[in-house]
Design a protein that fits this description.
This protein is α/β, with parallel strands linked by helices. Helices cover 38% and strands 19% of the residues. Strands 1, 2, 3, 4, 5, 6, 9 and 10 form an eight-stranded mixed sheet that branches. The longest helix has 25 residues. The radius of gyration is 20 Å and the shape is globular.
Length: 375
């Protein structure tokens, strides 16, 4: 059982977020097919981190990670591979399920980004227009050289994002492949590589598995070359315009800030985070999407004269992206496609995972980068 008992208080996973505000919960009952898909994602986490979850010191290490996150000592919390894997095994599964649902719900907006181009050339990888794949032995060659490809940049992304993206590719079908760049300040490369393998490798079944189970057994993403991923350890607030251009490339893509933006406002400050959003505005290819998901009611504090004032994250975001007089003289014009102040994601009864997971609540905002009238 992964859910907390009904009526129990929902726990938000650290390190990003803030105190929720009162709101009417929004829920959707998952279909039997979605529940089955969610269990497959949980299986990928439990298989990938089986040794971590079964370790005798798991609870002790988890408590140390929790304490470090509570103290906002992120370097300590992510100081070792063991800490990173404990974090990924504990908090990433529920988020991956939530993110995969969000991607499915906005698939009509994502679909136009799936460009059916010829095979990516080597210089495109070098210039940042596409990400190099994680090197996996025995990977198959793509069936179609003109496969539709979706490019994604997940800022502050790692374990939950790659699994959710893998599920999106599964749902999109074999005609769609994806290039995913995950960028974060922590050293998540090995965790990402392990989950990439879990997404693209056929699971090992019990010797007692039924003939039907064996016949249906397959990797979540197949062939493996449909999913290309790379991890970049970088502070996005320290990345200049040319550096961001290299990562964004020249064709439309999906950029995500999943439980990341409020942390940027809080840790990096409103000034630096606003500067990043303005740089993104001037460098992102027209037609791209920006998906922001965070804790509902997130606030960030800034000094105004001698006094400190708190601003809602959503207000700061809209103030930067949607007010024409606040935009840089060059770059795109943002259009808000969807906005939700508070949505509940509730785990389905009957899902299996070695440890308890919690429901989560979030706000979601989706923007599209459009051309200026003179473009």
């Amino acid at each position: 059982m992964v859910k907390k008992p009904p009526g129990s208080k929902s726990s938000k996973p650290p390190p990003r977020g803030s105190t929720p505000v009162a709101a009417q919960p929004v829920t959707e009952a998952p279909s039997a097919e979605e529940t089955k898909a969610q269990q497959r994602l949980l299986n990928i986490f439990s298989d990938t981190f089986r040794e971590v979850l079964n370790a005798s010191d798991f609870a002790t290490i988890l408590q140390r990670v929790k304490q470090a996150l509570f103290n906002r000592a992120f370097e300590s919390a992510f100081s070792s591979q063991q800490f990173l894997e404990v974090y990924a095994a504990r908090w990433s599964p529920a988020r991956a399920l939530c993110y995969s649902r969000i991607l499915g719900q906005i698939s009509e907006h994502i679909a136009p980004l799936q460009l059916r181009n010829a095979a990516v050339e080597e210089d495109e990888v070098e210039r940042g227009r596409a990400s190099p794949t994680v090197d996996l032995e025995g990977s198959e060659q793509p069936d179609e050289p003109q496969q539709a490809r979706l490019r994604v940049l997940a800022i502050g992304g790692a374990a939950a994002e790659i699994v959710a993206f893998g599920e999106y590719l599964r749902c999109a079908g074999t005609g769609v492949a994806g290039d995913l760049i995950l960028l974060d300040t922590g050293p998540w490369g090995e965790v990402v590589s392990k989950l990439h393998s879990g997404l693209t490798t056929i699971p090992t079944l019990s010797r007692y598995a039924s003939a039907a189970a064996k016949a249906a057994n397959a990797a979540l993403v197949s062939p493996s070359t449909r999913l290309q991923s790379t991890f970049v350890q970088q502070d996005i607030l320290q990345l200049d315009g040319p550096g961001l251009v290299k990562i964004l490339g020249e064709t439309p893509l999906l950029v995500t800030l999943l439980f990341t933006l409020n942390e940027l406002y809080t840790s990096g400050g409103i000034k630096l985070t606003t500067a990043f959003l303005r740089t993104l505005t001037t460098t992102i290819p027209v037609g791209s999407l920006l998906l922001v998901v965070d804790s509902p009611g997130s606030y960030s504090e800034a000094a105004v004269g001698k006094e400190a004032k708190k601003y809602p994250m959503q207000w700061l975001l809209d103030h930067t992206l949607l007010q024409a007089d606040k935009l840089p003289p060059e770059g795109c014009i943002w259009e808000k496609l969807e906005s939700h102040d508070s949505i509940w994601f509730r785990l389905t009864e009957g899902l299996r995972y070695p440890i308890e997971l919690q429901d989560m609540r979030y706000q979601m905002h989706l923007y599209r980068a459009g051309p200026r009238s003179s473009d």
